[in-house]
Each structure stands twice: as C-alpha cells, then as structure tokens.
Amino acid sequence: MGITYRIEQKRHINGAFPGPKSVELAARRTNAVALGVASAMPVYVADADGGIIVDVDGNAIIDLGSGIAVTSVGASNEKVAAAVAAQAARFTHTCFMVTPYEGYVELAEKLAEISPGTHAKKAVFFNSGSEAVENAIKVARVATGRTAVVAFDHAYHGRTNLTMGLTAKAAPYKRGFGPLASEIYRMPMSYPFREENPNISGKEAAERAILAMEKQIGGDQIAAIIIEPIQGEGGFIVPAEGFLPRLAEWAREQGIVFVADEVQAGFCRAGAWFASDIEGIVPDIITVAKGIAGGMPLSGIVGRADLLDSVHPGGLGGTYGGNPVAVAAALETIRYMEEHDLASRAREIEEQFFTRMRKLQSEVSVIGDVRGRGAMVAIELVKAGGTEPDAEITKKIAADCLAEGVLILTCGTYGNVIRLLPPLVIGDELLAEAFEVLEKAIRANV
Ligand SMILES: *Cc1c(COP(=O)(O)O)cnc(C)c1O
Fold it and tell me: TM spans, by residue (predicted)?
C-alpha cells in the first residue's frame, strides 16, 4: 500500500476504560446533548489516524468502524487534510447555486468516469446520504411522471421523512416519527442465509419480487426501484447471484428508474469503485456519500444524463450541496484511492477475514453465516446450531471487543450481526490483532 502513519499503529489501554476525562465528558453530555443521539462507545476522541483512534485519556483503540464506512482513507489523511486546508484558505463557501466553482464540475466529471456504464452521465451534489436518496426519488418521479417507489425488506436509506419510509426497520429509526411518506412499497429481498427454500436462485428471488410488484402496484405505476447492492444497516446482506441483474432488467423493460443506493458500499468499500461493478449491473442512478470525501460531509447522485436533465432548472439543489471544501476533500480522496489502489486493498481485507472467520465458523456453533465483500464483512450470530438470531450474544461480543480496545459495530434487522468496516488504510498487523480479539470474544461467549 505504501502508507505511512502519523500515529503509532498500536492498541493500548491505560488503566480505567473509559478513563476519567471521557467519564467527565459523558457527564457534561448528559446535561447538554439530546438523549436521542446515541454512541456505540463511551470514549471521547482526541486524535485518529490509519486504523487507530486515540481517546482523551490516551487510550489507543483499533477502529473497525471507520465512522460507519466513511474514513476509508483514514480520519486524518495527510493529503485530504492539506486539500481541505488549501481550499478553506481560498473560500469555504459561495453556494454553487449562486456563484459556481470548478471543483464541483470536476467531481461531477470524475463520478461519470468511475461509475458503471459508458453512457452519458451527469451528477449533482448534496450533504448527506439521505438527501442523495431523496433527490434520486425526485428525479425518478419527474422523469417517469409516476409516483410509486419500491424498496426492499432489510433496507436502510436514511432518517429523513421520505428515507425513513424507505428504511425497513421500525426501531429505532421510525418508531413514533410518523406519518411517513406514502406510495412506498416493500418487496421481499434475496437473503440467502434466511430463505425458506435454501436452494432458491437469485433469479427466482427476483421473480418473486417482480410478481409481487406486478400484482400489488403494476410495473407502469412504478417510478423507481431503490436497493442497496449490499445491504448495510439491514445486516450486510449480499443478495444471491442473479438477483440484481434480473431486477435491473425488469426495471428497464418497464421504464422504471433503477437506483442503486451505494452510500455505504461505494468508493472501494466493497472491493471496487462500486458494488454494482461487482454485481454486474449498470444502475440508472447511483447515490453516493459516506466514503466519498475522507470524512467531510458530501453526497450526490450520478446517473443517466437524460434522467437527471428531466428536472427543470432550480428543481434540485441546496445551500451547502457540493460545498467547495467537501468537494476538494472528495477529489483528493478519489486520487488517493486510485494511487494506493484501495479497491485491491479492500479485497485483501476480505480474503484475510474469510480465511480466519470461515475456520472459526467450522469450530463454533453460534456463527450462522459469514458474508460480505471487500472491507464490508460480517458475522451473523445464531442460537447454537440453528438459524434463530441471537442478539444477546452479539451485544456481549461487541461489548467484550470494545472493552479490549477494538471498536466493532453491530447491525441487522434482528440485531445479531457483527459488521466490520475497517479503514482501507489499516495495516495487516493491526487488522490481524483486531481479528484475534474478535475471535477470542466469540469463543468466550459460546
Ligand atoms: C448511511 C446510509 C444512508 C444515509 O446516509 P446519511 O448520510 O446518514 O443520511 C443511506 N443509504 C445507505 C445505504 C446508508 O448506508
């Protein structure tokens, strides 16, 4: 990889954990910060680089979360930090809708170049993943003149009103926040580990969803089908081979806009620029955010020029969308990913994960499934030997890892999935050490 680090890449915990400074900050937080925003870990960050986060008490923990798949190039990438500083010194904001700037245009050109398909493409930028999803739906509705939107079981598309409606899981995302948007239809996903008929092919799973769409909505009423090529919050679910290509093909036949929500899986995370590349699909629109800008808030949609241009001038935008500092960070992040071939790095991480965890799976009875792609990999935990989800043991394993100074996150509709999203710049040694801690935690809980 040829990556150098500013902070020593070494895990260590000094005494009490969380330490006294984190405990003090937690007390201030309790008084000042709304309860609705929760944190996975009780330590407060002082510094972060590569695969290490240093807290305010000097503890160094291994990061297998990347701030939820964001800091793929590291949380203080030298090149990205320099690009941010240089842009901030010139201008932090003008609003692209008032006085435009080159970086925005350059980033749109770059996304058209690296996203799947050779057709004419255009892009537009926003701030959050949810906003990108909202805008993909806006475009699809104008372009088709239709209203219905299809999302899938286990989907996660955000927390704004429309995207809450698209998200599958009620608690904690939707509970009490209604009324939600109308004209959203939910279809059965391809979830190989949890299929009633374990031999169902991807194509058959797609036909199951297509039949439901035909019967419940009608293909000619659907504006958009939105799907994560690898589901994120829903449990790192990789659909069976053939599922996505058949859905995309049917969408094309019906004049439906096929939207791939690549907010989590995109930007080398899954082992290619986009998970769609691996799944062999060319979506009409792709949503991007998270890993795109080295930690700066930026999102966007890139897709067929004819679709995006169906919206009237002034119909899309936002005060901060495509902020120049965030755009500079994105351009540098993409350059860095190219220069260091971080897509290959993600595939190396995948291989190391599977080698280790498949072996563990053969030795313990609580690992139901080991899955994922690139540096977006997961373990689904079940009651010994069966398929019944075990959220309790999942929580316990995650807590044990955190206590040892390894940050891991959980996810899944049933709360029984441990997901790993290491920064792509993490070194092999640190990664192996984190896997070791995870393995011990799993063995200690069976
Ligand atoms: C995180 C996520 C979103 C929402 O992004 P925010 O920036 O949190 O609004 C949407 N879709 C997917 C697939 C995500 O993982």
Answer: none
Residue 149 dihedral angles phi and psi, to the nearest 5°: -125, 135
Write out pLDDT tens, residues 226-251: 999 999 999 999 999 999 999 999 99
Which residue range is the domain that position 248 belongs to? 80-339
State the amino acid at position 90 in one-letter form: R
Number of other CB atoms surrounding residue 274 within 10 Å: 25
> Does 1 fall in a domain?
no
Quick one: 45 and 57 in the same domain?
yes
Q: Whose CA is nearest to atom 10 of ligand 1?
A: 157
Same domain as 440, residue 325: no
Q: Are 299 and 126 spatial neighbours (Cβ–Cβ below 8 Å)?
A: yes
Assess contact for 216 and 185: CB atoms under 8 A: yes
Whether 152 lines ligand 1, by a CB cut-off of 6 Å, is no
Span 205-229, pLDDT tens digits: 999 999 999 999 999 999 999 999 9
With a 6 Å cutoff on the Cβ, whether 167 touches ligand 1 is: no
Q: Domain boundary at 314, 339, 364, which?
A: 339
**Test site for ligand 1: of 157, 189, 299, 417, most ligand atoms within 8 A of the Cβ:** 157
| Last residue in a domain, options 284, 315, 339 | 339
Q: Kindly report the protein residue whose alpha carbon is nearest to atom 6 of ligand 1.
A: 129
Q: Does the C-beta of 228 come closer than 6 Å to ligand 1?
A: yes
What is the distance between the alpha carbons of residues 251 and 158, in angstroms, rounded to a whole number? 23
Q: What is the pTM of this model?
A: 0.98
